[in-house]
Amino acid sequence: MIFINPKTDYAFKKIFGSSESKDILISFLNALIYEGNPTIQDLEIINPNLPPKIEGLKDSYLDVKAQLSDGRLVIIEMQVLNVQSFGKRVLYNAAKTYAFQLEAAQGYRLLKPVIALTITDFEMFTDTEEFISRFVYKEVNKNFTYPENDLDLVFVELPKFTKELDQLETLADRWIYFMKNARSLTSVPETMDSIPEIHQAFEIANQAKLSREEVEDLDRREQFIYDQQGAILKAAEEAREEGIEQGIEQGKREEKLTIARQLLARLDDETISQITGLSLEDVRNLRSIDS
Fold it and tell me: pTM for this one?
């Protein structure tokens, strides 16, 4: 068997966000948010459609959105590339999802809590070795929770998960192992196949069930991500060699422009904007000058 890579946009939403993914998503969320407890009994996947075939950085991340039976909203994002200000984007998306629940003249009492589950293929928090982190609003000195604690940020950092197949203990372990290793497996491990929802996820991820066009498209997307990662690493290396990295941290515009010029031939405008922190308009102006 060959399985598609759950970390690519098309595969991620096909497995967790399609019309046949309800039970899979319930198990996945209960595992990563509620320590395997059956807290979520039912949900509705919102806009269960596969993503369009669009080239660019947007192909490296994807939101799946669901509403739980009690009205809570959950947004799930798989992020492959570590772009600038990604943490701010997570908070922005959660806050936007929270605020956009209300129509004009509706009362705040109608607002439902939002849970943002973010899975990253890179390390975000260097001061902890835990691969699952959870953030809520708390009082600084006494550490008690804000009364209307309606924004809940949950992060899963895949590189920090190092367990082998024979070390898997919890449902979360098995789902994270699936996310990290499905692409390299040639059969469904027995210890995971016994869980119906994970068995179903492997069934959906089985490349043999895809058309040739879907397989080719997935291969292009996966190669695109590898190319983007390589380009970002190369650009960072060149920046360090030229002493520019410190300039980026200090927010110096000229240094940002210099790096952006180096990337014009390799990356699209949106990617360059997110890496350097320049506005999309700045990058487009650079490209028009250099063309």
Answer: 0.75
